[in-house]
Fold this sequence. Notes:
The chain is mostly helical and about 290 residues long. Helix content is about 75%, strand content about 5%. The protein has eleven helices and four strands, in the order ααααβββααααβααα. It has helices at about 1-30, 40-55, 60-85, 90-110, 140-160, 160-170, 175-180, 185-210, 215-230, 235-255, 265-275, and strands at about 115-120, 130, 135, 210-215. The strands form two sheets. The protein has a two-stranded antiparallel sheet. It has a two-stranded antiparallel ribbon with strand order 2-3.
Amino acid sequence: MELLINLTVNGLATGMLIFLLASGLTLIFGLMSVLNFAHGGLFAWGAYSGVWFYTMSGSFIVGILGAIVTGIILGFVTEKLIITPVYGNHVQQILITLGFMLVLAEMLKVVWGPNQIAAKVPKYLSGSWEFGDVLIIKYRLFIIIVGFIVFGIFQYMLQKTKIGLIVRAGVMDKDMVQALGINIKRVFLYVFMVGAALAALSGALFAPYSGVIYAEMGFEFAILAFIVVVIGGMGSFPGSLFAAILVGLAGSYMAYYVPALSLAVNMILMAIVLIFRPQGLFSAKG
C-alpha cells in the first residue's frame, strides 16, 4: 500500500508540473489558436531565472517571482516580435516558434553556460513526513497544492469574471468583440503574457524537483504539454488538469512496473484518445 501511495504522490507532483506548463499552453494554443512551440523555451528560462534569483537573494519566493517576471517579459517579446506577424498561419507559427525555441536554448548557454546547473529545494520544503511506512516528500506535496490553487484561480477568472468573458468571446468572434470597442489584440497580448508566466512558474518549480536543469529541457516538456492539451481538449482548463494528472500517474506507474513503456505511454494515451474522441476528453465537438 505504501508503494502505491508513494507512486501516486510522485505521479501527482509530476502531473501538476506538466499542468502548470500546459495551462499556459491551453491559453495560448487552445484559446488563441497559436501553435507556440517556443513555450518550452519559456519553461526553461523560468527554471534558469528562478534558480538564479533564488541563489542571488537566498529566498525561494523571490526566485519564483523573478521567474514569473522573466516569463512575462519574454512573453511580451515573443508575442510582439515572433507571433504577431504569423497570426492565423499555423505552418508559419510552427516554423518560427521552433526556431525561436532553439534561439532561447542557445541564449541560456550564453548567459549561464552550457553545463547543467544544480537546483536545491528550500530548507523549509525539504525532507518528508512519515506516516507509518508511508513517506510523503514535502516539496512534491507543495507542487500539488500550487497546481490546484492555480487551477482554481484561472478557472474562476475564465468562467466568472469580465476579463474571462472577453477572452472567451474573443475566441469565438474576435471581430464582434472588436466592434464593441474592446481592443482584442491587447487582450490576446495579455493572455499570451499570462501563459508565458505560467510556463516560467512551472520551470521554477521543476528546477528543485529535478535537482538539475539544462538548456534543452524545454523541448522535452513542450512535447508533454502539447500531449496534455490534445488529450484534455484544446481550450479546456479542467481537461488540461485531468490529462496532466493522467499523464503524470501513467508515467509514475509505468516507470516502476513496466520501465520499457515509460517513455511511450504518453504517446499511447494520446493515440487512444484521438482514435475514440479526436476533440479531446473535455472539449465539445467543433
